[in-house]
């Protein structure tokens, strides 16, 4: 019986302690406290949800200010430091909120600029108290001691360097999304880019250009009278160039690299007909100073068309390679 009573009293004592801990966090000890700012931020966001127009934005603005002030106050009362630095973890949290507030938007709360400026803002928040002395009611500016200045400079400079590397990540990521053909290049001589996945051997957009171009060219040549085909080949540079520009405009419109592709033909005589090479030429940056291009060859030969009349008509037969070939260097000169 005594053991049961002890267990019951133990449960009540635990519940009482848990309630006291929750009450200490939720109930402000005085009006001027961090809990008050948090509650004001929640109240502001509720009001902004019900408001409309510019009033909604004004109320939400003050809600962010209250949240930042309350979070900063709470996390600096008993600061936990980031290992190896004198930066409080609270400054990191507050810096994130400030960055989201300053550089976020309604569609994307966390934007690349939010992440880029986060370390620098956190370092500045850490450094500001070093320039202030006194308490909440009697504070004045001061110049930090020489030993404190050194660690402040190191912290802020290293945080700015981290922001620069994060920005570099977003810049290169944007480059590879807007210029995906760069992934086919080699970075083995780079001192700051390390490839972490298998290299793309053939630029996808260059292949797409030739894949879209081939059936159009085949449709304009196949089973046409041989005299018309020879005339077509004489104007191949202009014809293929116009077709290529249309394909690039239609299929590569979402890529910035669309201006860095050019389409040209190369026509060569053979014993039985012609060889038409369709080239998609990359004129953008490349580790090879002479660049590279993709080629798809089509063999065009005259054949006799089946007809019931005695006068046989000679038409063109065309057969193209299935795959495109990636060739480093400059394309061959026009014939």
Question: If you had to describe this structure to a student in words, what would you say it looks like?
Answer:
- It is a single chain.
- The mean pLDDT is 79.
- The radius of gyration is 35 Å and the shape is elongated.
- The N and C termini lie far apart (107 Å).
- It is built from nine helices and seven strands; from the N terminus they run H-H-H-H-H-E-E-H-H-H-H-E-E-E-E-E.
- The strands form two sheets. Strands 3, 4, 5, 6 and 7 form a five-stranded antiparallel beta sheet that branches. Strands 1-2 form a two-stranded antiparallel ribbon.
- The protein has 335 residues and is of the alpha+beta class.
- 52% of the residues lie in helices and 15% in strands.
| N-to-C SSE string, H for helix and E for strand | HHHHHEEHHHHEEEEE
Counting DSSP E segments of at least 2 residues, the number of strands comes to: 7
Computed Rg = 35 Å
Helix content bin = 40-55%
The low-confidence parts are none
Q: What is the typical, i.e. mean, pLDDT?
A: 79
